[in-house]
Amino acid sequence: MGRLELRELTIRYGAKTVISELNLQLQDGEILSLLGPSGAGKSTVLKAVAGLLPPFSGSIAINGQPADHLPAERRDTVLIFQKPLLFPFLNVGQNIAFGLRMTGHRGAAARQRIERMIAITGLQGLELRRVHQLSGGQQQRVALARGLVLEPSILLLDEPFSSLDAELREQMRELIRTIQQQTKTTMLFVTHDQSEAFGVSDRVALLLDGRLRQTGPPEQVFYRPADVDVARFFGCNNVLPGSIRDGYFHGARVRVPTERADCNEAVAMIRPEDVRLYPAVPGSDRPTGRISGIRFQGAMSRLTVTTEDGPVSVLSIRPHWHLGELVGLEFPADRLHVFPAGQEK
Amino acid sequence: MNGRGRLLFWTIVLSVGMPFVPLLLWSFSERWFFPALWPQDFGLRAWGYVFTTAGSQILGGLTTSCLLALTTAAISLLVGIPAGRALGLYNFPGKRLVALVLIMPIIVPPLAVAMGLHLWFIRLGLAETFAGVVLIHLTFCVPYAIFVLWGVFSDYNPEIEEQARTLGASAGRVVWSVMLPMILPGVTVAALFSFLLSWSQYLSTLIIGGGKLLTLPILLFALMDSGDRPVAAAVSLVFVVPAFVALVASARSIGRRGLQGVR
Amino acid sequence: MLHPGTSSTPAVRPTGRTTTAGTLCLLLGPALAVVLVLFAGGLVLGMLQAGGYVPGRGLSSLTVEHVGNVLLDSELLRSFGLTFYISATSTLIACLVSVLLAMALVRLAGRSRTIYFLLQLPLTVPHLVIAISVLLLLSPSGLIARLGVTVGLIDGASSFPLLVNDPLGIGILAVYVWKEIPFITFMLLAVLKNMGTELLEAGATLKATRRQRFFHITLPIIAPALGASGLIVFAFTFGAFEVPYLLGRTHPLLLPVWAYRNYSDIDLLSRPEGIAIGLLITVIIIVSIVLSHLLLGFARKRGITV
């Protein structure tokens, strides 16, 4: 249980600004994913919150109390790293007990906390194992138990499952949710994997180029991107050029209502799975194009349709089109995201 | 560097440099009576003695020591590289025992071994000869070379040799053009180890060489007994220089690994 | 055994490659020949001589008389005690300083190239040269005494404390400490660099203070390297001749000096006794190797692979 508040957090490595003016709040018992591509500075934020890296400016408050002056060992946070970083000279049980030993917790109460964590993380029977005898998934679970046993206000997780294979990662996500339900620990979860962020968290915060671009529930950031970059990050990669006049976006062959202000250069973006294809009707003023590529990807196939506005990417289930065929395209108005073009980088 | 870094730096400079101060002062002193802090007269008598009066003897010692150390180092590599490869790359029954036997002489002093071999070396005509002293030096130089090269080969991936073979290199070519360049830093360290060990060896050289094989340490000991401090100091410095040169010359090839493990 | 480069023991690496017995014989043969014939052979011949063996007269000439003489010598215990004291003290001091030095150097990180080079210099300097230098520095007429007189701390050579050929072996300790600190430090630096800062960061976020991080993380990680290099230093100083010969007292003698004195005695009858003392040193050192091996094996079982 705990609240975290980051205000105007700016972090620099020498002259290079890694994070600029980050504002973020975590509510009691919430899981928030900090999502962003590799190198966006996500881990840097976690290290600053954990007290392992001094920020350049801004403040960090835990449970309403400023924490900036506290070294890592006196902050009410625990950081779980990408690698398990278990102590090789200690066995599983001793690893989990490490933090309690450091803080002078001994005896039956400490024993009980350790046993509870071992039960929650499913490590029963492995207490006496050497850590190098464990599988990767087990090691990361020990790391989780080792952090959670300290009952921190905020648990910070730095891509803790990125070294595990897909199936194991799925199990670990479930475990995180279970742990969260049982312990109500507030968690700040860093990942570059969208599905992981969506699967684990209550809210997602997207970090691009050191700046926070959008924060909200998973569906919101995914379906209602705040700007062109956010849309692109989530795979909304069809861009139709045009302009905005009198509350409408005008493209070459599309016209959709928008609430945005008039603007000579604008773009409308649409997700590949939202584009619909029809058999071409000769003489129609609807956009048309020719299928120039079909790539089978399993459940979906990715089609490339060459139109006069450039190529359009379409995701389709069991497509019955073939290469070179002329097709008509439909861009449903409620699926188009309109942005002024100046925003695009 | 910050203040603490500078303090550390100068402490190390002072500690490392300290022993060379009296050696330098004495080697250049002509008259230096107690309790003067500084020699009353500076001069080149000691150095003149070293390079002219006793020049042939000192030069002879230098040559003998160098030849001895180089021969020992070369043989140590010849024997050590295959053994290091076997220990570093392969698993075989009895490996731990073999490793222990091969490595043990690093720690066990050559004292008892030299004493034990002496009588038999006399009978074999090896005592008081260059070859005999090389053999006694090999007893501790070879294990040290193996020790270093074992570590080198356990970081070595022999698949690169198979790759070279598929690209048309012969087995001999692979050793010369692939393996040796890959392990060169380790080989340099091993050679330097063996060289330095042989170079600074006194007692085993004295026992087997019987005072007939005049290496630098043997000459230096004799000078200490004669009590001529300036000359002993000058010869001490002569004794140090080739090892310095060997270190600096190999620094490039050794790279960042440094001389870790030398003693 | 510890090996340079990385600090992990090669034998436990999962390399798992195998080769034919013929190849192995070819690779290991020459090395085993050198070690078994020269080293082990030397020890066996030494044992025979310590047993009074005379080549012409067969094994019947063997006697325990010489070994008995050594073991019953009233000097043995004092000599052993002094040797042990010198080795243990110099090893302890060198280990302690090396831990502090290695920790400081690893924190300096990239800016320490010059320091690294400086620290490598003592590794190339023969013990004999440093012993001579210490004699010129610490003897009653040495540079330090002269400095003392010059600044008025002492009246003359006679009021200078005895630091060479002294009962406490200060001069010998000074040489060994100067020579062995760089050796141990470089051994530790390899482990510390390998360890990096991640484990310490993990420790900090798990509420370990600086002090606790040192004692509960750093120290356990460097313990195998420290133990091994410490034992190497101990064994070396226990069997080394030059330094105690130049800087030690004539009574009681350190074991290696005593061994050589007997061996080179004009009276050829004391030669077997010299060899017996040499073998005694060897036995003590082999015991310490076995101890170190057990210790490392134990550490390995506890999972110390870093």
Automatic annotation (TrEMBL), chain A:
Organism: Desulfofustis glycolicus DSM 9705
Molecular-function annotations in GO: ABC-type ferric iron transporter activity; ATP binding; ATP hydrolysis activity
Name listed for the protein in its UniProt record: Iron(III) transport system ATP-binding protein
Keyword Iron tagged: yes
GO cellular component: ATP-binding cassette (ABC) transporter complex
Highest classification ranks of the organism: Bacteria, Pseudomonadati, Thermodesulfobacteriota, Desulfobulbia, Desulfobulbales
Transmembrane segments: none
Any single biological process term in GO: quaternary ammonium group transport
Domain called ABC transporter: residue spans: 4-234
UniProt keyword annotations, A-Z: ATP-binding, Cell inner membrane, Cell membrane, Ion transport, Iron, Iron transport, Membrane, Nucleotide-binding, Translocase, Transport
Automatic annotation (TrEMBL), chain B:
Pfam family, one: BPD_transp_1
Major site of localization recorded for this protein: membrane
Key words, A-Z: Cell inner membrane, Cell membrane, Membrane, Transmembrane, Transmembrane helix, Transport
Keyword Hydrolase (UniProt): no
Membrane topology per record: Multi-pass membrane protein
Parts of the chain that traverse the membrane: 7-26, 46-79, 100-122, 134-153, 174-196, 202-224, 231-251
Record-level GO cellular component terms: plasma membrane
Entry-linked InterPro entries: MetI-like (IPR000515), MetI-like_sf (IPR035906)
Subcellular localization(s) per the UniProt record: Cell inner membrane; Cell membrane
A single GO BP: transmembrane transport
Domain ABC transmembrane type-1 per the UniProt entry, residue ranges: 62-250
Top-level taxon: Bacteria
Protein family: Belongs to the binding-protein-dependent transport system permease family.
PANTHER family noted in UniProt: INNER MEMBRANE ABC TRANSPORTER PERMEASE PROTEIN YDCV
Name of protein: Putative spermidine/putrescine transport system permease protein
Species lineage: Bacteria, Pseudomonadati, Thermodesulfobacteriota, Desulfobulbia, Desulfobulbales
TrEMBL record, chain C:
CDD domains associated with the record: TM_PBP2
Subcellular localization, as worded in the UniProt entry: Cell inner membrane; Cell membrane
Top-level taxon in the UniProt lineage: Bacteria
Membrane-spanning intervals of the chain: 21-48, 82-103, 115-138, 168-192, 213-241, 275-299
InterPro entries assigned to the protein according to its UniProt record, in alphabetical order: MetI-like (IPR000515), MetI-like_sf (IPR035906)
Main localization, broad class: membrane
The keyword Nucleotide-binding is assigned to this record: no
Chain ranges of the ABC transmembrane type-1 domain: 80-292
Membrane topology: Multi-pass membrane protein
Keyword Transport: yes
Keywords: Cell inner membrane, Cell membrane, Membrane, Transmembrane, Transmembrane helix, Transport
Family matches, as Gene3D superfamilies: MetI-like
One GO biological process term: transmembrane transport
GO cellular component: plasma membrane
Record PANTHER family: INNER MEMBRANE ABC TRANSPORTER PERMEASE PROTEIN YDCV
Family affiliation: Belongs to the binding-protein-dependent transport system permease family.
Protein name: Putative spermidine/putrescine transport system permease protein
Species in which this protein is naturally found: Desulfofustis glycolicus DSM 9705
Origin organism lineage: Bacteria, Pseudomonadati, Thermodesulfobacteriota, Desulfobulbia, Desulfobulbales
